[in-house]
Design goal:
Strand content: under 5%
Structural class: mainly alpha
CATH topology: ABC transporter involved in vitamin B12 uptake, BtuC
Helix content: over 70%
Number of helices: 12
Amino acid sequence: MESGLVQFVQLVVTGLVLGSVYALVALGFVLIYKATGIINFAQGEFVLLGAYLCLWVINQFHLPFLVAFALALGMMALFGIILERLALRPMIGEPIISIIMLTIGLAAMIRAVVACFWGTQIRAFPQIFPQTPVHLGPIILSQVYLWTFGTTLVLLVICSLFFKYSRIGVIMRAVADDQQAALSMGISVKKVFAISWSISAVVSAIGGVLIGNINGINISLAHFGLKVFPAVILGGLDSIPGAILGGFIIGVLENLAGGYLDVYFGGNVKEVAPFVVLVIILMIKPYGLFGTEEIERV
């Protein structure tokens, strides 16, 4: 009985760590959707590119991790701005399906570039965090999990405070609520779009680096965006608190499914379980847990 409880708590704790990274990347999804109305299907590729850029800077220039990390985030911020300016801004006013197809094309292009420059084999980050495990009663955790969880929690709090209280955050919320009204108040909607894509690229890159320090990185890291998508829909496409909560729920659910159901179904249940729950939730709440309901009157 005690061993079963320990296993359950262990799965929940590691699921919360994974879910915190899901929440961070989901924040990038929601940010772009709230500001521009676009679902970015290249979000997983942002995760992939950010992780590889950080590892490349470390290996190429032999810089300390924190310096390489900051440089990689700067490059991803610039990448987000350039991407919005060259690829997305000309699509303003075009059918939404055209923009979605554009993001899918961007995803394929980024994967191809990463595979071309860095290959597809698994690469490991240098050991950054202490390797001595931490004992929390009967629970044993690697320090990389604790550092990852603490880092993402701090970043999620900072992002939430930024959107709620900072001038740029208030402007971004105004554009998300009503672009025409924001324009009439002298707000540059195009600049807000660029900032949104830039921040989204940065938070995705942070998620990629954190996951890379746990599992290493290869081209399959791009699938992280698809795994985050249920968290985004579950919380509500336009809800930042929903994205955060959805990330934690999906992370824990995935870990519990893998721990308890894989043995009965031959594995890979954790890959499917979030989507099963997502379908059930959407049957009950089509706009997600915190999404804004759209009511059309005719």
